[in-house]
Amino acid sequence: MTESTILERLLALDTNTVSDALDFLKLQGATYGLRPLWDCPKIVGRASTVQLGPKTDAEPTTHLITPVISAVTTDDRILVIAGGLEGISCWGDIISNASKVKGIRGTVIDGMSRDIDGSQNVGYPVYGRGVTMISARNRMVQVDSGTPIQVRGVTVKQDDYVIADRCGTVFISTEHIEEVIDLGERIDRRQSLMVEKVRAGKPVSEVMHDRQFDAINKAKASRSEKSSETASTSIGNPKKGTPEDEELVALFADSDTPGVSDALDKLGIPGQAFNIMPLTDYKKVTVGPAFTVRYVPASNPPGSVGDFIDDVAVGDVVVIDNGGRTDCTVWGDIMTQYAGLRDIAGTVIDGVCRDVNRAIDDNYPLFTAGRWMRTGKDRVQVGGVNEPVGIGKVRVEPRDIVVADANGVVIVPRARAREVAEVARKIEKSEAGIRELIVGGATVAEARKKLGYHTLQRKD
């Protein structure tokens, strides 16, 4: 198989699928924490490795990485940089421009970048730990290049293959690339069939049963197998919320998380889910009763990872406690599609999700502690459903009211939902009055004093 064919086939996959293939083959390669630093396109290519280290003397040096950029002669390169220091930049807009001119496909940094707007302006993809403004000048130097490096616990060699997208970054060794792609394509086909089943109304507990995943690693499906796997029933959700569910949800229809958070503060109720953030900048507020799920480490043999979804009612918010784990996901595209088809309101995870493109494109509300591509299958299993769980340091009881938006997630105890909603309305009304006074010419201080701004959230 030629290199161009390999890269074309790899480009047709995503990091989730490649990560699954590596899992089946018991190979390393998936990394956590190296994400797009702007809304980058997916990149695939061959690694040009660079090792950085702290500068230990005062002698002037050539700017780090520039010799590697100058030495590139092919159009398949992705720069892979190890040794970055927390808070210190080892990439910027000038070398992004130079790399773009050289036809380099992108950069993956186990470190930080600065001047990220400059990289975005020229359309140069940069993946890394995060952004900073602090220069590497007189702080870091290039130690080596073209040699094996360690990136997030994965050994990356010169010319290894790289794929990076919204879910993160994966490295594939040259000696295993063909079997990884072959298996990845089988996984992709099988999961496409699973999605078709879900769309056709098959219970997701049956579609995502372990035997379906085990079949991925067997021989390719025949044409007759593919055609027989499409069901003809229509999708729907027989599970409905109660009249009280509908009443409590309606109480928060015109609220948002800041207003509800202030009401919780005033009433002395802990409810703000720490570090649980929206997948994207949602324009609408998601409100619904909590359907709680608790995950635990997998047993031997492993248990179920997703059968609970068939019991979730229309309008519920799935609330998953995975203990804040970021090393494996508990939600992906099949669950997203099935939840959307069954009119589930959204999902909150104290952990990570994957297949984020599906959720973003479908506008399915997801609120998580992060995103990564590595599956939770055989790593975690459902330990309990509809029992108390912990989400972002907040206790969540089944059927508590979840309010989530672009600001984050708050949990309202069901027994106090009416009280919280009433206080939230009063606070939001006062803040609206402050805004009107400001528009009418009042100073901020005058408006706040008149409507008691400084006591709005204070406990009575």
UniProtKB/TrEMBL annotation:
The keyword Cell membrane does not apply. It holds the Pfam family RraA-like. Its cofactor is Mg(2+). GO terms for molecular function: metal ion binding. It comes from the Eukaryota. Mg(2+) binds at D355. The keyword Metal-binding applies. Residues 216-243 are annotated as: Disordered. Substrate binds at G332, D333, I334, M335, R354. InterPro entries: RraA/RraA-like (IPR005493), RraA/RraA-like_sf (IPR036704). Gene3D superfamilies: Ribonuclease E inhibitor RraA/RraA-like. Keywords: Magnesium, Metal-binding. This is Protein DlpA. The lineage of its organism: Eukaryota, Fungi, Dikarya, Ascomycota, Pezizomycotina.
